[in-house]
Amino acid sequence: MKKIYFLFFIPILLMGQTLDELIDLSIKNRLVDSYKSDLESLKKEYNSVKSGYLPSLNLGVNYSKANKEIASTPDNNTTLNASIDYTLYDGGKKYDRYSSYEMSIKGKKEDLSSIKNQISLDVTKYYYDYLSLLAKKDAKNKEIEQLKAQYERLNRFLEAGTTTEDEIQKIISRVQSANVSLHEIELELQTIIHNLKYITGQTVSIDDGSFVEPLKQEQIQSNRADINSLKFQVKALFEDASAQKSDYLPTISVSNTYTHADMNYDNSDFKAPYDEQNIFSVNLKWNIFSFGETKNRFESKYRKYISAKSKYEYEKNRANVDLQLAKKAYEIAKLKIDSAQAGLKAANSAYEVIKSKYQSGLIDNVAFLESLSEKYEAISVLKSALYDIEVKKANLIYHSGKNLKEYIR
Questions:
Q1: Which one of 39, 213, 304, 336 counts the least CB within 10 Å of its CB?
Q2: pTM for the complete prediction?
Q3: Domain ranges of the chain
């Protein structure tokens, strides 16, 4: 007689991470570090620009040796000079640049918040997808247990001659199909674990029990960090364009230069005309004509501003649509739970009736196997619906611009 082998996947009990712990690990990865470095780099650049507008002090030393001494050129000469320079007015470019950097820094901060929130949402989806797959796996294992019991029962009937070989083959076929499904589920589970390893940078396991606190109705709004970042980018580009217009205006600066010269003459008839000098000057520079250079540079920056503004408006509108879809998906997820609960109740009732008739010989095993599959499928559907609503809550929180991690319990 042909033997049948039943394959069972038994979960290994390991100390796993909760969703909150997984998110903590994920938002400390190298991608987030990259965004932090970009932010710090921009801050340093801004500090450098601000320092460039402060008074500058320059020191210089010069030594010269002449091959022929004359009255105006000593045999050797050592000159020391010190100068202080400061720009009083540059047409307003300084403050436009300051504003541009400040807007850019705010944008980078929003980028950092956005990538953290996006990672948190991805990890949340992986977490609940994994638990949903575990529920499917458990339901499939229980189905196989039932099939094994029926196989052993029919095998005894076959030996007694009260059933046929084709009834046994139907059980074997169903078991083989269930084992294939288990392999597919196991592959999906391993894929999720590997994806989490890519994000966190370490091997993780998952512990059930976390949930997402629902968002209150008055908190639902669209102000995601990535949209805020685009808004600040638009403002920064506007300030960049404004800075170019300052070239139409004059630049006024002041400088003070002190020079000390030590002129050494071999010929005593020669005398140094001076040995020190201090010169204070006020300087004005005004580019009154540049063949359209300033105009074209301004228009180029302004076009970039217009382009960024259009993109911001587009993405802002899309974010509002995404938020409305997230709200709708959340409402549907709640209805799915009600439907799944009703479906499980009906499947359990049908299974008990059909099982009783089957064991009494009133119906064949085709109807019984179908009811068995429907029962465990209904269990899996309910658990999946319960996990799915957690994902939908997380998605709604994300599209409302809230920090998802703060809602994980």
A1: 213
A2: 0.85
A3: 19-54+90-250+286-407, 56-89+251-285
